[in-house]
């Protein structure tokens, strides 16, 4: 693999992250790059690792999944070297992000994780919109399995729970 190839993959990742206002997961990034057959999984991982090592992107870990955000240094780099990405690739990236935006944002906006606390476990569930926290729910449960179940269910039920809570509070204010 030539160094130019890795540089292009790094620039493509930075370009993608710079075009969204929320973090992307490794699978979201790789879905585009691998489906378009720009490179293989191993070269993609090399590019991501080098971007992390050089502080062009940062990783946020949630329940064993890594989400990536571009850093200020990464933004400067992509602005300086964006010309090395062909217009055709830029159009493909922009099209992919537009077509997948709602799905990509929803995956990043609804998060859940758990951690031990005083012999129990806290399931922490969040809903964000444009990096603004809309709702944070912390539940203390006795077992790790319960915490995992809550986190797994949050993705499917979060909207329903949020709407229920808002409606419940609204009902109480109209009485």
How does the major sheet shape up? 3 strands, antiparallel
What is the average of the pLDDT values? 85
User: If you compute it from the alpha carbons, what radius of gyration comes out, rounded to the nearest whole angstrom?
Assistant: 19 Å
- Strand % is 15-25%
Helix content: 55-70%
The level-1 CATH class of the largest domain: Mainly Alpha
* CATH second-level architecture of the largest domain: Orthogonal Bundle
Note the gap between the termini.
Answer: 68 Å
**How many E strands?**
6
Order of helices and strands: HEHHEEHHEEEH
Question: What global shape is seen?
Answer: elongated
How many structural units, i.e. domains? 2
What would you call the structural class? alpha+beta
Number of helices: 6
What would you note in describing this structure?
There is one protein chain. The chain is α+β, with helices and mostly antiparallel strands and 175 residues long. The chain folds into 2 domains: 3-108, Orthogonal Bundle (Arc Repressor Mutant, subunit A); 109-173. 58% of the residues lie in helices and 24% in strands. The chain has 6 helices and 6 strands; from the N terminus they run αβααββααβββα. The strands form 2 sheets. A 3-stranded antiparallel β-sheet has the order 1-3-2, with helices on both faces. A hairpin with a 2-residue loop joins β5 (120-129) and β6 (132-141). α1 packs across α3 and α1 (3-18) packs across α4 (72-81). The protein is elongated and about 55 Å long. The termini are far apart.
SSE order and pairing:
Layout: H1 3-18, E1 24-25, H2 26-35, H3 41-53, E2 57-62, E3 65-70, H4 72-81, H5 87-109, E4 110-117, E5 120-129, E6 132-141, H6 144-173
Antiparallel strand pairs: 1-3, 2-3, 4-5, 5-6
């Amino acid at each position: 693999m030539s160094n130019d190839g890795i540089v292009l993959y790094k620039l493509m990742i930075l370009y993608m992250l710079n075009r969204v206002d929320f973090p992307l997961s490794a699978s979201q990034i790789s879905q585009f790059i691998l489906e378009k057959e720009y490179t293989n999984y191993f070269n993609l991982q090399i590019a991501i690792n080098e971007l992390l090592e050089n502080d062009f992107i940062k990783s946020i870990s949630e329940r064993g999944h890594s989400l990536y955000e571009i850093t200020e240094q990464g933004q400067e780099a992509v602005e300086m070297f964006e010309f090395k990405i062909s217009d055709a690739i830029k159009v493909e990236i922009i099209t992919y992000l537009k077509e997948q935006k709602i799905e990509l944002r929803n995956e990043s906006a609804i998060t859940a994780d758990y951690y031990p606390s005083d012999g129990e476990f806290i399931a922490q569930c969040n809903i964000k919109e444009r990096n603004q926290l809309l709702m944070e729910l912390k539940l203390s449960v006795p077992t790790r399995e319960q915490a995992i179940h809550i986190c797994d269910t949050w993705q499917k039920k979060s909207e329903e729970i949020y709407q229920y809570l808002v409606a419940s509070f609204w009902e109480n204010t109209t009485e």
